[in-house]
Every structure is written in C-alpha cells, then in structure tokens.
Amino acid sequence: MATIGVNVSEECRKSFMEMKWKRVHRFVVYKIDERSRAVTVDKVGAPGAGYEDLAASLPDDDCRYAVYDFDFVTVDNCPRSKIFFITWAPSASRIRAKMLYATLKEGLRRVLEGVHYDMQATDPTEMGIDVIRSRAR
C-alpha cells in the first residue's frame, strides 16, 4: 500500500486492525527501511503485554512508530480503550532518521484509521504511563 512518498506494507495495516478489532496485540512497533522508504512491522506485543513491554521494545538510539491500546476505567466505572500513536525519536538517534520519521509519519497515520491520540517522545518520560493515563479521558 503506497501513500505519498512512503510504502506502507499490508502487514502494517493488518497488524493494526488485529489490535484494534480482534485485540490480539497490545501494541505494534513499526520501523522504516531507509533505502526503500518502506514502513514495516518491527515488533508486536501479546494481549497480556503491558506498557513496560512497549517501552522496553523501543531502541535507545533509533526512531520508531508505535501504536498502543490503552485500557482504563472511567470515573463512571465504565471500561474504555483508547489507541495512542507514538512517534519515538530519541536524542541519540541520527538526524537523518529523525527527519525521515517526521516526513513519513502522515503516510502511515492515514493507513492506521482509528487512532485516538498522537504523541511524540524523545525520552521515556515524555511517553510514560502517567502521561498516557492523563490524556485518556
């Protein structure tokens, strides 16, 4: 599936839809192949995986995209689920990688229909579980 300037593999859309509708993944991490400019699935988290597993799957020195299915209970005691799209660009990553991920982000976002919140993070504190909890209301 090609969108403007980026080739998003069918596996990307499929894994997102499996997470969203079938709930067979807790999160999906995507990476870009710099030569082909193709977005592919890097890792998936099992349904029982937690936020810590997502954070641990992101490299310290390279960029990634991730979607995370966050379950919570509202003040009215209603169970809810919100999907977060995270652009991970740590300080230690190369400038070229940061630019590429920033440029191709919208192409992937168009394919992933149903994301509730969009976040950018350069270190783990910017995407901590407390930050996610505060946004999911």
TrEMBL record:
Lineage: superkingdom: Eukaryota
Signal peptide: none
Domain ADF-H: 3-137
InterPro entries the record matches: ADF-H, ADF-H/Gelsolin-like_dom_sf, ADF/Cofilin
Tagged with keyword S-adenosyl-L-methionine: no
CDD domains assigned: ADF_cofilin_like
Keyword Zinc: no
Membrane-crossing segments per the record: none
Gene Ontology molecular function, alphabetical: actin binding
GO biological process: actin filament depolymerization
Gene Ontology cellular-component terms listed: actin cytoskeleton
Keywords: Actin-binding
Similarity remark: Belongs to the actin-binding proteins ADF family.
Protein name: ADF-H domain-containing protein
